[in-house]
Structures
1.
Amino acid sequence: MADILELPQAGTHPIAVQRGEHAHRIVLSSPPANALSVAMMDALMAALAEAAADRDCRVVVIAASGKLFSAGHDLKEITAHRGDPDRGRAFFETTMRRCAELMQAIVRHPRPVIAEIAGLATAAGCQLVASCDLAIASEEAAFCTPGVNIGLFCSTPMVALSRNLSNKHAMEMLLTGETIDARTARDFGLVNRVVPPEYLGTVVGKYVRTIASKSAATVKIGKEAFYRQAEMGLADAYDYAASVMVENMLARDAEEGIGAFLGKRKPEWTHE
């Protein structure tokens, strides 16, 4: 994925997009903090929309340049608006709503989204990791939700954490604000794999190739169904999942895949 294009955006928080075979790699490129300013979130939303519109894109990777994955919201930007006539209320609402839209765009994205974490992910940066479908971390990565330390409980990161971690583990991070290492994050369920830093890109690349080799239509159906059923009661979830299975069975790729399995041959996906 060597072709790097900077997306046009306002402000001084550029991202870069590397387009490779069946993948878009979105890189937060505003070190040292890679803060999720409004401009940064707008750029991420644009990059995600572009990946969704690209029929050749099968997987999205979100990574970062520098030592920090992301320090979360831009506190300097937030503080600058405390002098507004409304003490910043309108800007704070815009920031939080845009962040919520970004996290939901990742969950609702038609392609699997993988977080590639080489450094520290804090607050909304940790929320970004938790919102991705998969997360691969370097042994040097670390995670925290430190809002409680500065009088600002990490309530929006809590939404993503509580849907990935056990309640006890999520509350431990939220109440203490302490930093956990990558292996603890794996034990908590925040990341899938922890690898030596020199192998991070290689391992993420393997996940990309593995997922990209599947039927894109099937993966899209499965990702959407996973998150929708998770919000339902047991009986409703089974009713919904059964209906999804029926529609999936009628898809061309399911017919091809089952036929290939029975015929002991490699399937030829149409991605339909």
2.
Amino acid sequence: MLRVAVLISGTGSNLRALLEAAADPGFPARVVVVGADRQADGFAHAEAFGIPTFLVPFREFETREEWGRELQAQLEVWSPDLVVLSGLMRLLPASVVDAWAPHLINTHPAYLPEFPGAHGVRDALAAGVAETGASVIVVDNGVDSGPILAQQRVPVLPGDTEHTLHERIKPVERRLLIEVVRAIAAGDLALPAPEPH
């Protein structure tokens, strides 16, 4: 059984989908802990499923590296086989990435390498493209630049706003995440090591 830790910053909609999938006895992975860098609404999903949580508030640390050391210490308590970033809106320090990669994955609301960064949906709309997408990647020390594990195109419709487009991307993101976690747990997907930057 693959042990999964999930890190969040917000509502945790991807987390919720993963918890629902993992509640199926036939699913080969279990979420063992949920952590966050701030008091996140997504903790409610963890509590609903009886999953332990931990909080490492970014603002309480002098540097990103100090925050990363505490985050790393909290993760190590749970010995996860895989760490999933589920809307964690903060770049991890290199020490944390190096400790977990390639067993560290993230979702992104664009068809990478198109539109990396924090505003993938907005950037796609601004570029006037006919389609964007969703991706699941291995995290490396770049910005959304790690090896791609799964992705799917999502059309941009006339009149789309950032909100409407993102709402159509989210279900695709959730499904891809669940498929990737299942495939890793079942041994059907080998995680490629990120190339050093």
3.
Amino acid sequence: MKYRMPLLVGAALLAGAASLPAQAVSSASSAPHTVSVTKGQGKKACSWGVVCLYKNHKLNKGANAAILLTNHSLSRLGKFGFNDRATSVCNHTTRPVRLYEHDGYKGSSETVRPSECKNVRTSFNDRASSVRLGTGPESAR
């Protein structure tokens, strides 16, 4: 009898933990905010879960050039030496991303859909000063 009570309590605790909502478990495993600038080219230089801004067109085709990688919004790309330098972009996230002409998510913008890699439009070339993840027409409610 002495040993049955702790076993029953332990089983009840395990059953309760198994019924936790998925949100509670997944929020604890959120990735930390990261930003880095590296050199490379092509889609493979941009890992899943990040947005990559490339210095040259076609994802730095033909040259290992600067790439800014981030997994969160940045209100000032100049802080990372990438103000007015983005010519192409790869969005390897599940959320839309919007590039803005000015710091603080202001001015004209360009939206990049989830899983999309592209050159920015000619009129926006080398004009991005901030980037916001999770915005754009696709996320409007």
